[in-house]
Amino acid sequence: MAGTTATLDALLAEAAARLVAAGSPSARLDAEVLLCHVLGVERTWLYTWGDRQAEEAPTRRFRALVARREAGEPVAYLTGEREFWGLALATAPSTLIPRPDTETLVEAALALAEATRGRLLDLGSGSGAIALAFASERPGWRVLGLELRPEAVALARHNAARHALANATFRESDWFAALAGEDEDARFDLVVSNPPYIAADDPHLALGDVRFEPRSALVADDQGLADLRSLVKGAREYLLPGGWLLLEHGFRQAAAVREALVAAGYAEVASRRDLGGHERISLGRQPA
């Protein structure tokens, strides 16, 4: 980018043009988020003070971030943060970036959490987005997140502490493994998960932010269905009578997941649609 400093408006216009050329579908927004991150301000501040001259050091940092975004790095990794369910969550390349479609899973879990107290298990918690969103809305519930990668567990714990959500705890575990041998504390009213569900040969893995996210959190065998089917079978042991299993999946996988739920003996099997109208989650109830 030519020049050393410029007004904030000029910096944004310059960055947005670069990102449009690089194929960003949200070039102006990306530029604003990155500049706000560098300056430590809200976006509304930029609209008011856009004619201010940018200082040299922040300009250099901003341009360096824009160059990385040009190369495809996700904004959430560049800023180290993404908002989910109104919570500002720390993000890192060791975890998936929380996405709006996953709020469909949170909404469905909250709708089923009729009692003031209960227990929810979140499998493959990553940054803790699902567990913490639920915990923020149901303070009387005990929420446990299990996650395989220790660095992700540390990140989820950081996010819980950041929002003072003491009713949410996180442990390292390969799916249900950490619960083996436990009795009363290993049964839950709700079990939820956003597991890997993309097929290894899916062309979307070479596009956009997904290129930079951990492949182990994205890809599953059996055309993306292996982990979903494993969780359907495994959750029966950890659900209380009348409890619910809720799974996020790809928009073409709903029928296969419903079939697996029915075959495993769940009742009231159904799917729910995301904001784009796609069947994004499927659920079933443990018989009473």
Examine the coordinates and then state which fold CATH places here, giving the name of the CATH topology of the largest domain: Rossmann fold
Strand content: 15-25%
User: Reading side by side through the largest sheet, how are the strands ordered?
Assistant: 5-4-3-6-7-9-8
> Secondary-structure element sequence?
HHHHHEEHEHEHEEHEHEE
Q: How many DSSP helices?
A: 10
- Please tell me what the overall shape is: elongated
Describe the secondary structure blueprint for this structure.
Elements: H1 8-21, H2 27-39, H3 43-48, H4 56-70, H5 75-79, E1 81-84, E2 87-90, H6 103-112, E3 119-123, H7 129-137, E4 142-147, H8 150-162, E5 168-172, E6 188-193, H9 226-235, E7 239-248, H10 254-263, E8 267-273, E9 279-285
Parallel strand pairs: 3-4, 3-6, 4-5, 6-7
Antiparallel strand pairs: 1-2, 7-9, 8-9
Helix pairs in contact: 1-2, 1-4, 2-4, 6-7
Summarize the structure.
The protein is α/β, with parallel strands linked by helices. The chain folds into two domains: 8-72, Ubiquitin-associated (UBA) domain (Helicase, Ruva Protein, domain 3); 94-285, 3-Layer(aba) Sandwich (Rossmann fold), CATH 3.40.50.
